[in-house]
Specification:
Structural class of chain A: mainly beta
Order of helices and strands of chain A: EEEEEEEEEEE
Shape of chain A: globular
Number of strands of chain A: 11
Distance between the termini of chain A: 36 Å
Largest sheet of chain A: 6 strands, mixed
Radius of gyration of chain A: 13 Å
Strand content of chain A: over 45%
Oligomer: heterodimer
Largest interface: A-B, 22 and 23 residues
Order of helices and strands of chain B: EEEEEEEEEEE
Radius of gyration of chain B: 14 Å
Number of helices of chain A: 0
Number of strands of chain B: 11
Distance between the termini of chain B: 34 Å
Strand content of chain B: over 45%
Structural class of chain B: mainly beta
Helix content of chain B: under 10%
């Protein structure tokens, strides 16, 4: 069993929909990261958080340390949001989720 | 200017060869990383250096050796390449976090990746 589990694995949405991607982890962490990998392969760090909630534009990330769970929300989704979203946790070691492939249809 | 750059972008080579991938960051960061992304797109950390000092060395074959000539560079040398080494290798960097050195406790900036194909 992977230390970091993401759901769903694949997600297709209509433009404008509200999207939620979930991440659960089973190890102690110091920080949780949400990464975005574009179809071209490049990786961008979206958020790093250790508690509470962070917002950047239409993206919101939350974490519940007690429940070992994080969510990434995308409001008013757009085709350019189509990418793979990867959850990763860091502490004494690094662990990555297997990613959620998001396709937003116009 | 590119923040984290890697060369080459593509590398095709024969089994048994020795090759290097170079990484440079111009962000003034102290910590640099190497990741491997396999054919199933699963990312895994390989190494992390903080100010030229190795701080993370995951279970990676001895054929892989990172070299950090200065804190802006972290090169990856691979000896005796095998078919299973085919993957995309990403370099990344982040600021050092005050206090005990723990990699990954700051936002990471990724290079564009190097696609290695071993024939």
């Amino acid at each position: 069993k992977n230390e970091v589990e993401q759901s769903p694995q694949n997600l297709t949405a209509q433009e404008g929909e509200f999207i939620t991607i979930n991440c659960s982890y089973s190890v102690g962490i110091s920080a949780l990261h949400w990464l975005q990998q574009h179809p071209g392969g490049g990786i961008v760090s979206l958020f790093m958080l250790s508690s509470g909630k962070k917002k950047h534009g239409r993206l919101i990330a939350t974490i519940n340390i007690q429940e070992k769970h994080s969510s990434l929300h995308i409001t008013a989704s757009h085709p350019r949001d189509s990418a793979v979203y990867i959850c990763a946790v860091s502490g004494n070691q690094f662990y990555f989720g297997t990613g959620t492939s998001l396709t937003v249809i116009p | 200017d590119t923040a984290v750059s890697q060369t080459p972008k593509y590398l095709v080579t024969q089994m048994g060869n020795d090759k290097s991938i170079k990484c440079e960051q111009n962000l003034g960061h102290d910590t640099m990383y190497w990741y491997k992304q396999d054919s199933k797109k699963f990312l895994k950390i390989m190494f992390s250096y903080n100010n030229k000092e190795l701080i993370i060395n995951e279970t990676v074959p001895n054929r892989f050796s990172p070299k950090s000539p200065d804190k802006a560079h972290l090169n990856l040398h691979i000896n005796s390449l095998e078919l299973g080494d085919s993957a995309v290798y990403f370099c990344a960097s982040s600021r050092r976090v005050a206090g005990p050195v723990k990699a990954g406790l700051d936002t990471q900036y990724f290079g564009p990746g190097t696609r290695l194909t071993v024939l």
